[in-house]
Please model this.
Amino acid sequence: MRRLVLLIAGFVIWSAAFLAVYAVQATGCAIGMEAGLLRGLLILCVAVGLVAGAIPLWLARRGGVLGQSAAIAAAAAMASTLLTLSGVFWLGPC
Amino acid sequence: MTPIRRHKELDRIWRTAPGWGRLAAVNHTVIGKRFMLTALVFFAIGGLLAMLIRIQLASRQSEFMEPGTYAQVFTMHGTIMMFLFAIPFFEGLAMYLLPKMLGARDMAFPRLSAYGYWCYLLGGSILIVALLMGAAPDAGWFMYAPLSSATYSPGINADVWLLGITFVEISALSAAVEMLVSILMLRAGGMSLDRMPIFGWYMLVVAGMMLVGFPPLILGSLLLEAERAFGLPFFDPTRGGDPLLWQHLFWLFGHPEVYIIFLPAAGVLSTIIPVFSRHRLVGYRAIVAAIVAMGFLSFGLWVHHMYATGIPHLSLSFFSIASALVAVPTAVQIFSWLATMAAGRPRFSIPMLHVFGFMFVFVCGGLSGVMLAMVPFDLQAHDTHFVVAHLHYVLVGGFVFPMMAAAYYWLPHMTGRQPVQQLSHAAFWTIFVGFNLTFLGMHLTGLLGMTRRVHSYDDPWWEVLNFISSMGGFVTTIGFALLALDLVLLMLFGRPFRRDPWRAGTLEWAMPTPPPSYNFASVPMGDIDGPSLAAGKGLLATPRGEMETLGVDPLSGRPEQIVILPKPTFLPLLTALATGGVFLSLLFKAYLLAPVFAVAVVALFLRWTAAMPAPAVLDAGQGLMLPNHRAARMPPSLLAMRFIIAADATAFASLVFGAGFLAISAPGWPPAEWPGFGWPAWVAVVGGLVALALPGRALVPQLVTVAAFTAILWRMEGVQDHAAPAALAALATWGAVHAAIGVLLAGWGDRRISAQWQRYAALVTVVAATFPALLRLLAEGAA
Amino acid sequence: MQRMTRDSDEAVGRLFLDLRDDGVLFAAMRFVGDMFVGFLHAPTRRLGLAGFPILFAAGCDRDLSVLSPAGPAAQGIATLWWWMFWGGAAIFALMLALFLWLLLRPAAGRGIPARWWIVGGGLVFPLPVLAALTGAALWLGEGTLGGTASTQIEAEARMWQWTFRYPDGSETTDVLHLPAGRDVEIVVTSPDVIHSFWIPRLGGKIDAIPGHANRIVLRADAPGEYGGVCAEYCGTGHVDMSFTAVASDDWGRE
Model:
């Protein structure tokens, strides 16, 4: 079962990062957080998501058909984290 | 033992009795076909409603329908096609195919299949009866509050939707759990996951998506029904609710839903295209990764239905980029299919014609989908006929055409007869031309400003386009009638064949067609062909009077246990009838009757576990001694419990999210008087912690927890005045119900299954009891 | 699971067709080919075909048409749309051509390795296209969404009419008076159910959600009348909930 978990681990981390960024941004805007601080927090969330996303990629590097699928999925998940949340770097926070 | 004698003995064990015995059917072939046939009946009803819509819109200022009737018609068209056709149809197809493809004799929980079917049939019938009585839901298929609330929809119409659809969703959730367990555990010996037919992978991911996709909708429906029936104001902005909460919960389900519908169809294409290309599927690994990516990304799109609701642009950007990005795994799959065709020598046959229909229509819909993912463009196109055209291109291209390919491909399997050929081409081209005639111009209708759901209009240009669409709609209907005729002709006059007419390599073609009740005379082990299976050279070749199939290690496919399945029984039907009683008494506001039926449901479910085989070790053949599932380390039911908990946890997380969302976003927070749980909350936490520590002896602590939550609910005031106490009451109810289920399982359930639930319920208790403090912090921070 | 049953059946051959058996497909292809050739050779037919775009353009110029923008927000979106339309059409033609090429010319693509198909078609091709498109759309959105303007008009949507309140305290029903050539911020609210404020020729829509006040900045480049509607289904009177936006140069001096 561990290898099956590894297959989805990357995207589970993507989901967590996605929800965290969305929640922090909504909450930050609602409580009137200062824009620079909010942007910093959001970038931090993305960075944590990327670092965490590298773990399944590293664990999946050993072969087997399922391992290769897991590696592709983990790499895709990391790219997705960076791409989907790239707005935090350049768009207005609220 | 001769093959004939083996067939007779196995059939005696597995077959469904004739006459009234049909109501006791649990066999996956029977239930799968029933699902598909029922879904087709609903498809016909939904199609009829579409024709009514097209008649209404064919000319300006049409007097054909009143606005109120028209609202019921378009609401029911969407509802039927989504909930009563698309999902049940692929559930039926998967139920029919999966065990046959994976080398099993049935699904893991045959009675659950039957129960799901009856829930679907009864729930769907409630909706159709309401339509015939003129009391059908009329607020649009996504039922936006507050239009669907008691103030603006005072009749029974909205209740029919909320309760009927929730009733039907039971079948979706039960199918999800069942597919997950069946795919992971009930396969041929030696079929490791990475050698599993690709359709199994698709359905594995789809089932996982259904498991977390449906709970938010079910929760949302329960909350809205609670608002309508008991005045708990979750969505009423004048009392601390927020209409946007409904949109979040609905689309959190609603967007993944589109992919839940598309992926099984993609699985069909990944199965069919290699067969007709005479080459194995190219890019298996990439496709598995792409399916997983799609499954997840599709959950990051839900706000793209809400671009115009005033959410900050940065938030929209996440969803916009995710919506564009989901095109990448789609492209990976399409190019894998093209690569398969390039590597092989494509042959042409009717299913391939429908694959062409898919390519044409779905690519077009996918491209307009990318357009709609762009925030500024969507703000113009949203809620216009452009969106209507887009969604039909995606759903008809991404589901109906592949399913027609599947029908031509697998009907020979179900009937043992080959296509007749003559009418098939005419039917395809009529549908194809009619469909494009209906919906291609509709993009322009939308860009010219025609919003959806209007029953009349003035613009002469819209009339030209709408008239073309209406004519196209009628042509499409004629095409579907031709298709139906063609399939009936196939069943009546098709030429019989012996085995594997398409020269496919998957296991479902290794059995006689039409398939026998037991699928495989012996369960496949390693590489083995059809005649050898019939000759009993696989596992479990000697009938022992029980319905036996092989349970394997999920990853490696190593045989691990013999799963003994339950015989046909009326229990699923009776339980579904009792469940229907609960929903009907809620629908007709007979609130005293509902608990009576609920008790009946619980009592009937307890009866399900009555006749279990004793733990034993049995001979599986080929010198293999295996425990039966009662003696196994990981029986299917234990794995199923984990998935049930995952689904339940998603619903609970949605509830917690909903309360937090209200605290931040809804007007009128924090409430004037802050409601608290008071001292019973501490009692509940203690009960929960004890149950967590001693899950084997949880009866007493869970009883204490139930009592504590009951006390909290008893002391709760003002639940109808503000959404804050209403949300807390919902949390306390959630905790009480879970602890009560814990009491039931501790008293009557299997020890290991009970322990899993006790731990989970204890965590729910702790979160539910402590969350109010966090909610208060959040609300006061936002204010 | 590669398992093979190979008990052959003589009837099997009948299931597979030569593609030419499908008369309709070939007739359709020949028709497209004839159209193209005829277009090149016959001037009269060319006129007939040329008539279609004119007809199309006439159709676009409607009161509620997204394709007939009259303000900067709508103009940007219309430009985006035409880019997407032509790009989408090209990609659609490419995909269909690939599919038919592989189907009609078996073994045509045999020389291209599988990896190229999947990596090229699945990643290398879509990713830059999507990145460029999404980047442009976000840049456009960042410029039009979430802005403010010094002139504010309140729009209250209720079942089933629009009430507009102006800075000077006056009110109109179902007619919105705007200054021409100047940004206005419309603050959209609703006391009952969800509606949506939409003037297609000026810009995108914004929902009127009870309990929330949503804002949109619009500008009409020139004086004139522009149609507006409620875009979100709001009950049986939904279709009647339209209004007219009147842009004038002497707004506020009347």
Summary: Residues 2-30 of chain A form the longest helix (29 residues). Helices of chain A lie at 2-30, 35-59, 65-84, 87-90. Chain A touches chain B at residues 1, 3-4, 7-8, 11-12, 14-15, 18, 21-22, 25-27, 29-31, 64-66, 68-70, 72-73, 76-77, 80, 83-88, 91-94 (CB under 8 Å). Chain A has a mean pLDDT of 91.
